[in-house]
Design a protein that fits this description.
Distance between the termini of chain A: 37 Å
Number of helices of chain B: 10
Radius of gyration of chain B: 22 Å
Structural class of chain A: alpha/beta
CATH topology of the largest domain in chain A: Rossmann fold
Order of helices and strands of chain B: EHEEEEEHHEEEHEHHHEEHHH
Shape of chain B: globular
CATH architecture of the largest domain in chain A: 3-Layer(aba) Sandwich
Largest sheet of chain A: 7 strands, mixed
Number of helices of chain A: 7
Oligomer: heterodimer
Strand content of chain A: 25-35%
Shape of chain A: globular
Largest interface: A-B, 49 and 56 residues
Structural class of chain B: alpha+beta
Helix content of chain A: 10-25%
Order of helices and strands of chain A: EEEEEHEEHEHEEHEHEEEHEH
Radius of gyration of chain A: 18 Å
Amino acid sequence: MSSANPLMPQMATIIDITVETPDIKTLRVVGKDGLPFDFMPGQCAMLSVPPVGEAIFSITSSPTCRECLEFSIKDVGSVSGALHALAPGQQIGIRGPYGNGFPVEEIKGKNLLFIGGGIGLAPLRSLIGYGFANREEYGHIDIVYGARSPADMIRKSEVKETWGGQSDTSVYLTVDAEFPDWNGHVGFVPSYVTELAFTPEKRVAITCGPPIMIKFVLQALEKLQFSPEQVITTLEMKMKCGVGKCGRCNLGSVYVCKDGPVFSLAQLNALPAEY
Amino acid sequence: MVKKVIAREKLPELWAHLSAEGLLILPIQDGPVVLFQPWYAGADVRLDAVNSAVSPKDIFLPREETYLHYRCSGQQLELSAVKSEEPVTAFGLHPCDMKALEMLDRVFMDQDPPDSLYQKRRERTTLVALSCDKPDPFCFCNDFAVDPTDAPGADVMACLSGNSLRLEARTDQGKAMLERAGGLLGDDSGESVELKEVVTADFGLKLEGLPEDLKNRFDDPAWDELYKSCLGCGVCTYVCPTCYCFDVEDYGHAAEGERFRCWDSCMYGHFTKMAGGHNPRPERKERVRQRFMHKLQYYPETYGEIACVGCGRCLRSCPVNLDIVRVIKALGGEKVEQR
């Protein structure tokens, strides 16, 4: 009658590593027999590198990609640092998937406005890929993506060429300041969103990025008359268990690892502002 | 219903018998304090003591618990589960601690997915609860849904009565335990024990409606004062029977080692600090608020009752008296005298 230990990872292998930026790499990971588990866009997984430990990362690939899981990981801590030091062929531990994921059913038929900053594109990319794979289910897709500099943009060719080349899709890129090799838009993401003057009609905005960017994007969307129900974001908090018990990601009566990480702004407004 | 009795001077024989069946954990005098710990020959077992200094939650959520071994060789990684299967008898838990166990069960067994480490320990443990008739000045379980003389959920309910310990089986598991110890136990006369009403401290708390009321008190000015005396030592979380936050860490070197989980505390700064440095609860104010809001508002919102059983441990242990009674009163949970 006892169940399996939810903290016990399974084995996985890193099959490929792409250097995205000076501090971001994308790891492609497979389990023993293909995908380690099924998941939905917006869900996360715990990756283990003994003896350093475990940390939670959003899955950046779309569930429609059946070859592997992809993780775009910024080198900011001990586990992310350890993952950056690995080479293809290395075995790691993995467990998941965790979290609620994006509300793919509820947003069907809507125009989708993605607003990402820096590594914040990683969780959005899973849903963007899912949207393209189920193109007829969704309306027009706008993608606003910004980074500090051109060198800090992840998945550059995919964003520009693959996504830009999709039907009924617009891609808007911006960097924080002027750079010699950049002739695109210059300015912060929130002000670019304001400038592009998206209308809230039949549209859902999905945003992820550094906390300061999210804060101003939310303000910009509010000014553009988006209601809190039309704005979706995905939270980041320290997590150890991933199953709503260890206490770190507790916010009010929810656990971000289990009840989130995806919340509408309306849901967030009902929680203590502690994230 | 199986009812047995044993003379108190015979108890060491019962302890020896139960510890031969598996791990026997019970309240033992350890220097100046009483702690739940494995029995050993000659142990000073304190069934007569008020609550142990630390709650017996570690029988089910150990302070540290290794659950996997890893071995690395080149690019190969091998992960193997570490299991412990020993049967356990937990003897002498007071009704307040039994009530707290019910609260932990909801988190670790009822929520999906269940925590198998906790669940397996619960399944292989026979719980002998002990009625409590000598509360100390810090005990206030009368404020909560705790009957000091009875503990739902026990396999065996025990009570000290004069020179005897009376034992009543409540489950098949408890009945089997008493039957195995048959030679040591006499049949109880069947007369029910005359249990007097146990009155615990009245701190003048008004708990009705408190969880609902606290929804609007996240930004209450009381928090700006309350936290100031907190030293952030975390002792409240360690002694508390309803605190269950834990950490997961690796121990070992590159080639071989283990992963364990251990108690952690929301009172510590690193608890919510993320890689990259952002910390959603950076100061003691946010952490004190988190701990008490979890007990008094978040947990009740999910499970319908306040996560406190009135065991009094935080009142006895907090070096600055920032205990739950003081916090409840500061947040409006105090009875106002009718004049």
